[in-house]
Structures are given as structure tokens and as C-alpha cells.
Design goal:
The structure is a homotrimer of 205-residue chains. Chain A is an all-alpha fold. Chain A is 71% helix and 0% strand. The radius of gyration of chain A is 17 Å and the shape is globular. Chains in contact: A-B, A-C, B-C. Chains A, B, C: Keywords: Cell membrane, Membrane, Transmembrane, Transmembrane helix.
Chain lengths: 205, 205, 205
């Protein structure tokens, strides 16, 4: 199940990358690059940080083609995107949760400490979006918006906790998905945000 | 031959990095850092993605000194740069093609899939420029301009295709260089661009 | 001694990251991420560049907790920060020197060339700050300001030079700290800067 969800996830992320590239008037090549980086950048950063070579997508050409296709199809259907906003937000949330769980699993298999497992999940979940925003010249939205990165944190902690309690992997994944999606939907619906830190001292360290 | 072209390539890239740093009023140290990252950043990202350790430049101090020299010399001759624009564009194009071919070779030797070989070539060709632009706070030009990254793609695909047809390495490199330089010169001369994707929906995913 | 100084160093860097995040109105999660990246990003980039896996902080959860704590505590005490400016600048300078020496040591133990050892020290010293600035959408200050990155260079070269002259490690560290802190304090006090390279040609390479 996680695999088919994963395909939905990377396609949704690739689309969000393509739209961001379009906002910066990038050419077709740029759209493809940003789509790829948004969809597979989080997993790439995770693999590099954990020393997990070869990097996952280098062994799965289908992932690469899927992100490029997702990016280029987005150009064709961009005019309809605003009618698909609800659907898109759901797919994006599914992607966030799927990426987080996969990231936890990779670190677990490599025998890393619990805190590193959680960070691996979060990195996989949010770093593609961070790379997208940096490449498009804007401050990473996932670090400012209504709880997004935080959903990744909750999912990772819950996932690891349930596994360590001896709960089966299927049930654990289902629970993580339910809680993650619910939390994200609530956050979007009522615009729930973490407290924001405002600091205006002109210059410092 | 590829080695001597490579030296031209990293010097040209280092110079382009130094000029970008100068536009941001960086100090001597900043100029050296940006020159280094522009010239050797693409190969570094490639080595890390492919798990090709130790990273190439750590084994070749001469590369490092060459980029630093290129960067600092640029400061001295900056006032004449506009008279050298044509020359510079040719050197830059040579660099793009040389980097691309070298990137393909590294991935080929490590036994990666064809699509990864092509991506390795492109990464080596364009990522130095992307890092330069990110460090200097501008949206990567290679993803927006008249076909630049696309030249790297064409060169990589052609190079891999000819090699797999059994064409000798010398002829293959010559063909890749000819086509790559021609394509880039045509693109500059007639300002050929890929179609641009414009998207203005305010906020999304 | 270097270990306890290291703890001061990562805390000071985490605080500088948190303040930068606050200037961009990031939420609590964003503050924690930027604090972490600022404090441990330099060492992470170094470990990846040198192929030094597993990455240091993945083996030391205490480092992670310390940066997160440092980041979140900063929010609580932000209103008093301007009274602490002098102290903060000293801590930051201590961090710069400590990071540089540690970075040199890592490369030395892996048997890298002297130039790579120096670059490893500088990378560890300044790259956290570069990542912080990129994530917060500003051109890296360490490449523009009164001599900061340069302090790292001087410390790294001096440290390597003394070690190779057969001077004991304790004395060498003391010398590197004294010179580094003095240089940084002089640079701050009298606003000493490296020459700046200004270049205004609109577009180029």
C-alpha cells in the first residue's frame, strides 16, 4: 500500500514544484528540475545525511520519469488547478505523511537512534518543499505556515512510538496516516498555526 | 584533451562566479568562495549524489588553486570584462559541454542506469551555476534563460547514445562538443529559448 | 576543553539561527529547524564533503537537543538580547574558532591534503551561517562583513602550521584560540573589512 501511496505522493509534490517554477516564469527545463527536486529532494537529503548510498532514486528510474511527467503535465492542466485546490491539498497531505513514514523506515533499517529516526522522517517529509522554495527565491513556507512541518513531526513520533510498543506495522501506518491527515485538514480548515517568533533587531551575530 | 579543456572550464566558471559575487559587493573571501562553488560545486553535488567518495577536488589541490586564482584574477581584470564578453561566452559554453561529458563518464564508470548517467552529466554541467545564483540571492538563471541547461541535456543524451552505438570515445567527444557548442552559440545569437511556463495563482501547495 | 567550548559554540550558533528565523517571522518549528541547521549545518556539510559517515550529530543526540533547546530558549530571552550583544559576539567568535579547529581535526584524521584540511576547518566554521542566511532569504553575511570568514582561514592555517612544526596540540589550540579571538574582536571593534569587489555589469555568464 505504501508504494502506491508513494507514487501519489511524488506526483503531488512534483506538481507543487512545477507550479512554484511557473510563478517564477521558468522554462520547461526549469519546471522539470524543480518538479524533480521538490518530489525527490527530501529523500535525497535524507539518504545523504544517513549515508544511505546509492541514493534511492538512482536505483528507480520510474521515480524520475514520474516526477518529470508530473511536472510537465502540470503545465498543461495549470489553468484548471484552482478548481482542483481541495483535491490537491489532500494529495499533498497524503504525500507529507507517506514521505515521513518512509523516511522513518529508512533510518530504522540503518539502526539509527530514535531522535535521528524522527528527523529522518521529517527531513523526507519537508525538505523537498524547502529546496523548492529556496530554488524559487522565497523563504521556505513550511517553516512559517499553518502547521505543516509539525504534522510531519507528530506522524514520525507516533509512528516510532507505536512500533516500539509492538503494534503491527499495518496498524501503525494506518494510525499514522489517520492522525496525520486529520491534523493537516484541521490545520488548513481552521488555519491553525504554531506561535510565530517575531524579532526585529536589525542586525546580529 | 578533455583534461586541458577541463582547466579552461573551471577557470571560466570561477570567473563567472567571481563576477556574480562582485555584483553583490562581496569581499575577497566571498569572491573566492563563490568562484570555488561555481566551478567545482556541480562536480561536488554529482559526487555526493552518486556516492563517489572521496569527492574529486579533495584529491586534486590544483583544481582548488585554479578556481581561487581564477576568482581573484577576475577582480583585477573586471574592468575589461565587457570587451571580453564574446570570448567569455565561448569559454563558458566549452565549460558547460566539458562538465557534462565528465559527469556522464563518472556515472558510467560507477555502473549507473542511463537516465542517471544523463542526470549526472546535467548536474555537473549546471549545478555550479545554480549554487552561484542561490548564494547570490537570485533565482537560478540556468532554469530561465535562452537554452543553456538544455544544451547540457542534448550533449549528455548524444554522448551516451553514440557510446552505446559503439562509436569510439574520441569521435563521440568531438561530436558532443561540436553539437553542444553550436547549439549554445545559436541560442545566444538568436536568443532561442524554451517555452516558458507562467503561473500566477497567488498561493498553492 | 575543546568539547566544553564546542557546547558553547553550538548553543551560540543555534541562538544566532533562531534570531534570524525570528526576523522572518517563522513559527516555533521553523525556529528549531534554523537553529539546528545554523549550529550543526557546517559540520554536516564537512562530513558529507569528506565522506565522513555516519554524520557526527547522528551519533550524538545530545548535540541535537542542545541546538533545539538553544533555539527555543532564544525566543524566551529575545527581548533581552540587545543588552547581551557584547557577550553574544564573544560567544559567536569562540564558536567560529572552535568549529574551525574541530573541522581541521576531522580532515587530518581522515588523511586529507593540507589545503583540504584548511577548507574543512573553514567549512565547519562558516557554512552553518551560510545555510542560515540562505534559508532566511538573504545573501550570506559571512561573505560580505568585517573579517569573519577570514578569521576562520587564519585560524585553520595557523593551527595546521603549528601542528606540522611539531608544537603540542594543547599549545597549538591555545595559540589558535588567542589569535582567532583577538583578530575577530579587533575586526568588530574597528570594523576592519577585507576589500570589497564591486561589479555592476548588468548581466554576464
Amino acid at each position: 500500500m505504501l508504494t502506491s501511496v508513494y507514487f501519489i505522493a511524488i506526483t503531488a509534490e512534483a506538481m507543487s514544484g512545477a507550479l512554484a517554477a511557473g510563478r517564477r516564469n521558468m522554462d520547461l527545463f526549469g519546471v522539470a528540475v524543480i518538479a524533480f527536486l521538490t518530489a525527490l529532494g527530501g529523500g535525497t537529503v535524507r539518504d545523504i545525511l544517513l549515508g544511505n548510498f546509492p541514493v534511492t532514486w538512482t536505483q528507480h528510474p520510474s521515480y524520475i520519469y514520474m516526477t518529470l511527467t508530473g511536472g510537465l503535465v502540470t503545465i498543461a492542466i495549470a489553468r484548471f488547478m484552482r478548481h482542483l485546490r481541495q483535491l490537491f491539498l489532500v494529495l499533498d497531505a497524503i504525500g507529507l505523511v507517506a514521505f515521513t513514514i518512509i523516511g522513518c523506515n529508512v533510518a530504522l533499517e540503518l539502526g539509527y537512534e530514535p531522535i535521528v529516526v524522527v528527523m529522518s522522517g521529517i527531513t523526507t517529509g519537508i525538505f523537498g518543499g524547502i529546496i523548492r522554495d529556496i530554488m524559487c527565491g522565497r523563504v521556505p513556507q513550511v517553516l512559517r505556515r499553518e502547521i505543516y512541518a509539525c504534522v510531519s513531526l507528530v506522524v514520525a513520533v507516533l509512528y516510532l512510538f507505536l512500533l516500539r510498543q509492538g503494534v503491527g506495522e499495518g496498524v501503525t501506518q494506518l494510525a499514522a496516516f489517520s492522525v496525520g491527515l486529520l491534523l493537516r485538514m484541521v490545520a488548513i480548515r481552521w488555519r491553525v498555526s504554531l506561535p510565530v517568533f517575531r524579532y526585529s533587531q536589525a542586525r546580529w551575530g
